[in-house]
Amino acid sequence: MKTTSLLIGLLLLIGLHAGVNSQEPIAISSDSNLKVILLGTAGGPTIDAQRLGISTLILAGPEKLLFDCGRGLTTGMARLAINPADVTKVFLTHLHSDHIVSLPELYLFPWASQGRAKPLLVWGPDGTRSMVKRLEDAFSFDIHIRRDVDERFSAEGIKVIASDIREGVVYDANGVKVTAFLVDHGPIKPAFGYRVDYRGRSVVMSGDTKPSDNLVKFSQGVDVLIHEVGRSKQDPALIGPLNELLPELPPDPWTS
Would you place residue 250 in the very low, low, confident or very high pLDDT band (cuts 50, 70, 90)? Predict the structure, then answer.
């Protein structure tokens, strides 16, 4: 399968290197450290048995901040014994399906199975509020039955509050500051990267972008840069059947 790849700038990262069946827990505590957990790194609308879709969890003191909701997000959390009900703040770089496809699961399942009792908060580019409203509409039957008729789960826990953002500081609490900045994702406008600052430490997530002066600007002095890199659509290596491996990739163990 032809897929994009990720180049990770690494200074202070907790990566998801465990195997598919691993249940190795990650210690999550409210301390002074800034921690980065790569829940998934696979770009594009692809299906891959070995890699989950792009999702990054930032731990900063009491804050648990999720950036993008790629395929298999909650599976990635389960591998590391992270309770998804504790992750209620989501920041989207853009609305391509591979960056949002697990948002419905994060919205519904932790409420219905882990007892989330407070609203899910979502920040993202123009269209985020509209998308979230339609998610509520799409799952209205399930929500009504579980909230009002059968299990009577928390009415507060199934609320979702979404915000269409602009470039600048979009979240500032408990000493944690999240800054959104515009990146060049071709015709996908607006698309954002994010910078998180906490107690003198910082991490930047580029999101999907071409070479971008704004990314360089907002990455100045950062401790960690997570920079997504993909081939140009004009790259000759991408010509051919969609299920053909790129030349430098090893054979797929699931099909060979």
Answer: low
